[in-house]
């Protein structure tokens, strides 16, 4: 049992992947830009992409299709984007150094960990393997495996179910408002590390128990560990 815990119940930690554990958003943007240009949306900008950070790939494409009447079926575009992203991700994806320290500290103390992400399972597994984070994670849940993506709580609740953990005993690490909203809806504690610091005042982040407004440049593995392993 962890020395800082004030109860015998064990805490499990569930991480979002993209923008939280790893800096994958540039690769997601480039994959989206390449694919959307082929399906009727040229000049897709980073500003447009940023509006979808924290939302699953399928949901993003469905919204863009409704807005712009893209020229291919969503399933086809999804497969093309996943393929383009995997190629980019395998070439270069970096874990955030302080977040890696947090994972290693939790692992050393025997805390169970999982990843719950809006990405495809193949993308999640490729990134975790490429960064070496796979050895720390007990399981992975993709939003493609549940009925609703974030901001609905399905992916986090499924991760907790597979861990055999009660939602109240789970801590979520998130970088985007939809993920913070999903954690709140799941009845889980949340550490928010905004990928876009300008989004730190989003109402969804107000539900987080611990917020690092400056994002990764402010994130502290030690502070996150103390908060995670201490119950009110």
Automatic annotation (TrEMBL):
Keywords: Hydrolase. InterPro entries: B-phosphoglucomutase_hydrolase, HAD-like_sf, HAD-SF_hydro_IA, HAD_2, HAD_sf, PGP-like_dom2. Belongs to the HAD-like hydrolase superfamily. CbbY/CbbZ/Gph/YieH family. It holds the Pfam family HAD_2. GO terms for molecular function: hydrolase activity. The keyword Hydrolase applies. SUPFAM superfamilies: HAD-like. This is Hydrolase.
């Amino acid at each position: 049992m962890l020395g800082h815990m004030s109860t015998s119940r064990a805490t499990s930690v569930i991480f979002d992947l993209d923008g939280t554990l790893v800096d994958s958003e540039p690769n997601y943007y480039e994959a989206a830009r390449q694919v959307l240009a082929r399906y009727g949306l040229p000049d897709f900008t980073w500003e447009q992409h940023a509006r979808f950070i924290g939302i699953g790939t399928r949901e993003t494409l469905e919204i863009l299709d409704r807005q712009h009447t893209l020229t291919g079926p969503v399933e086809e575009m999804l497969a093309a984007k996943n393929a383009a992203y995997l190629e980019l991700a395998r070439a270069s994806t970096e874990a955030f150094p302080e977040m890696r320290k947090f994972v290693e500290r939790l692992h050393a103390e025997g805390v169970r960990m999982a990843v719950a992400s809006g990405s495809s399972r193949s993308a999640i597994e490729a990134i975790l393997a490429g960064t070496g984070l796979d050895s720390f994670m007990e399981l992975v849940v993709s939003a493609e495996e549940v009925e609703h993506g974030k901001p609905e709580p399905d992916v986090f609740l499924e991760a907790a179910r597979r861990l055999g953990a009660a939602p109240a005993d789970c801590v979520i690490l998130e970088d985007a408002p939809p993920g913070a909203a999903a954690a709140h809806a799941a009845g889980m504690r949340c550490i928010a590390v905004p990928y876009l610091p300008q989004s730190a005042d989003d109402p969804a982040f107000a539900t987080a128990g611990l917020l690092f407004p400056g994002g990764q440049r402010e994130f502290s593995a030690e502070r996150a560990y103390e908060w995670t392993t201490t119950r009110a």
